[in-house]
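Consider the tokenized backbone below.
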């Protein structure tokens, strides 16, 4: 039994690693086709998820980046033609800066989303509905188990 589990673990790790690395390459290629980097897209995504406006520090924390790194990302998004975001001082706290999604930023985000979803539709369209349902079931089950029983916050380095 242990040997079968060890084999399944090795095969699962190989498949998961292939999915993640391939996904990262494809995502980067889609971003490049839209003249963006993945971190820039994540900023736009965070803004969309927060109603188009968010404190720069909150975005940095969400993506585990320093404020300086986030400032550079926002400056590059601001410098695009047309600008995808703009910065706005918080009138109540002049030390705080909001990042605001521009209409061009919203359009770029939607274009990338459409592009990514079209590729996913093409891939999932190659398998039957029953296979898609099974795939969703097992992926959902895996995510549920991992997130509930093994949260990231509990991961500790070996000493």
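A designed sequence for it:
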């Amino acid at each position: 039994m242990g040997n079968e589990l060890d084999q399944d673990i090795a095969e699962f790790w190989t498949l998961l690693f292939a999915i993640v690395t391939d996904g990262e390459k494809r995502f980067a290629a889609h971003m490049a086709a839209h003249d963006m980097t993945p971190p820039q897209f994540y900023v736009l995504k965070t803004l969309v998820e927060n109603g188009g406006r968010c404190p720069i520090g909150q975005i940095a924390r969400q993506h585990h980046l320093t404020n300086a790194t986030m400032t550079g990302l926002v400056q590059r998004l601001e410098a695009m033609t047309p600008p995808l975001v703009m910065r706005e001082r918080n009138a109540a706290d002049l030390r705080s800066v909001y990042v605001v999604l521009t209409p061009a930023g919203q359009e770029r985000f939607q274009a990338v989303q459409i592009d990514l979803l079209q590729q996913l539709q093409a891939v999932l369209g190659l398998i039957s509905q029953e296979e898609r349902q099974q795939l969703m079931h097992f992926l959902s089950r895996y995510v549920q188990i991992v997130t509930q029983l093994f949260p990231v916050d509990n991961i500790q380095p070996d000493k």
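The beta strands are 53-55, 85-89, 97-101.
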